[in-house]
Amino acid sequence: QVQLVESGGGLVQPGGSLRLSCAASGFAFSSYYMSWVRQAPGKGREWVSSIFSDGSNTYYADSVKGRFTISRDNAKNTLYLQMNDLKSEDTAVYYCTKDPDKGPWGQGTQVTVSS
């Protein structure tokens, strides 16, 4: 079955950086448009970024544009999210998914931005 395992989260100070990874299995990863979404405490899921199956096109929410970079390595079945200049409002659990509306979701990785 589909398995998505996110990692790379942690506690970082404002202005810092983190790189999230998502190891995918159980489906043809290289054929799928993939996305990152996040859920802040007490809020619903928010779409963050998406990437075409071949990596040729990327899309970002306005709130992260210019600070986050999505990428993928189809040979490793892995999705990445490089996050720079982190802000307190980026604090959330981050999930990767092949369908940002329907899931499925992994367990997520917690990102906390705080001084």
Q: What strand order characterises the main sheet? A: 2-10-9-4-5-6
Total helices: the number is 0
Instruction: Output the structural class.
Output: mainly beta
Tell me what portion of residues adopts beta-strand conformation: over 45%
Write the layout of secondary structure elements.
Blueprint: E1 3-7, E2 10-12, E3 18-25, E4 34-39, E5 45-51, E6 58-60, E7 68-73, E8 78-83, E9 92-97, E10 109-113
Parallel strand pairs: 2-10
Antiparallel strand pairs: 1-3, 3-8, 4-5, 4-9, 5-6, 7-8, 9-10
Characterize the structure shown.
This protein is mainly beta and 115 residues long. Helices cover 0% and strands 48% of the residues. The protein contains no helices and 10 strands. It has strands at 3-7, 10-12, 18-25, 34-39, 45-51, 58-60, 68-73, 78-83, 92-97, 109-113. A 6-stranded mixed beta sheet has the order 2-10-9-4-5-6, with no helix packed on it. Strands 1-3-8-7 form a 4-stranded antiparallel beta sheet, with no helix packed on it. Strand 7 (68-73) and strand 8 (78-83) form a beta hairpin. It is globular. The N and C termini lie far apart (40 Å). The relative contact order is 0.32. The mean pLDDT is 96.
Short synopsis of the structure:
The chain is built from no helices and ten strands.
Task: Looking at this protein, list some descriptive labels.
115 residues, six-stranded mixed β-sheet, mainly beta, four-stranded antiparallel β-sheet
